[in-house]
């Protein structure tokens, strides 16, 4: 499989603005399509930049591995400055603990069934494991079901404005005290400023909300006699704006970036590290062409900031406008590319796209290709 | 793991109408969530009904296995009357041929790279394999790359109104003659009346379009000296309205049905065979609760006919209104169910949901549970 380098210029057209993409990409001549390609040079640059940026602000980097679900890439993150990892499911925790990771934060208020408790008990013997709590009932389930509740470290989740999960910041202390009285060990507070995804204008405000909420929550814990040694914030968009008393950030998407991160101003086009390779399979219907990447290759995820389901790198302004499971329809008024043409799509949201694949096809500028397993793909529970 | 039966009544609220769901469902006490549950009694009833209905109209049933991607379920379809299967990718074809299926239709105008050609050559020795063509260029790639092009059976794809792929019906003969002159063997014409998904009003018209287009295409082939022995139509919504000269139908979703099929009038609520089991993980934010099924468990697929990303069976009118990867936010004005409550979600579109899981949790009314592997999950190429 030979490797060619080409420079492409593409325009992404979100509703509100235009972003010009200029990125080097690759052609793997007989690559199976649809496939998920990553450029490891860009990945490494993204990882190093984030670690350096956070460390210069004395903030620890605990990347969310739900984005890539890959042991090899988590090892790369660790080698390039990550301080522990964040996971979303017990299944992810199992994969990464089995691979030797020993400092994990399961950043969700998971419900503790007997099955979950058995796994948490086992994992917390093998690694330092933190878990989120946002209700006294959730804390009671943990305390009741676990054999060794004090082995776990509890993080109180607070709502800094996304209004998804998390207790109010000024009520965090009461919940933390409740956890402690159940025999649980609270070590800090965390939040996810997901309202940053409303648009580029929202990013700075969301970061400020995260910092303010964590500070209020920390004071609330202190007032209840609990010290928060960890103040954990962060989404990929807000992380550049964090500072103050924040001790840790948990970005995920920054390893690859995607069309949405570029639209938010959280990444530049040359920081895009992942694309879906696809081929044109039909030009039969006028005014469009069809690629072999549909909703099972790109997801059907939309963004309020973006038109369609992905941007074609090679064709200025070409957007995947309609999806079937194995067809992507690209509205296109010019002469369509011929059947068989290899194209590359920048997905809207890379995290859910990665979850559709078993491995990444990997390239470096000027080197031959390789493959990296997506070890925790589908580990949903 | 014990099994309980409960009767639930739920209302699905699409934009245009309300559909009342009354279905028996199951509670697997310590089931891991999110999980994909199917009721095998309902599956078998769906399979038998479709086979009987089509056979009474002298139409062969070639179910699309992309919906379930499971060897066990394809065997069940065969045992209950299916005449061959339809697949969407080479990877799916490989899985089902390896499992002994010997009559497959790859219903796409796939692009033939050297890699694809090698696989098609191998598969066409092991099974009767049909493949779609909608361009002369695509036919040329097949004829050039294959070692044994005459082993394959070619189906000309025509556009009956979905405007996705397929040549115009009256041009099918010219394309078929072109294929024959390249040494390919054309056996019929096919179409997918996907414009049926526009709404319940569109279903009958789309079925009529399919029948009319196939008849025109068949005549066009005849005029060019090619006999179409197969006239293949069908999507799950249109299949009940097929007749005339149609020889074969290719429904997929009918095995499980989903929220969209019910909204289209193509299934009744008691024909829903698949749900996602989930638990409440947070009630911290007023006016809503959060379940552990997000976009990696439900997909982010929307339908113009439906609000949100899925309906909660147990709670009348409760819809998943917002998704993160591991969170589903359910807007809910009443007293929310407590953290830990087990709920079941009817997905919008079951085919893409199945592709997220490695296995089905299986139940029958009154029997203990089992598991069925989703063998071809992620076989995208």
Automatic annotation (TrEMBL), chains A, B:
It is an enzyme of class 4 (lyase). Keywords: Lyase. SMART domains: D-ser_dehydrat. It comes from the Bacteria. GO terms for biological process: D-serine catabolic process. SUPFAM superfamilies: PLP-binding barrel (SSF51419). Belongs to the DSD1 family. This is D-threo-3-hydroxyaspartate dehydratase. The gene is dthadh.
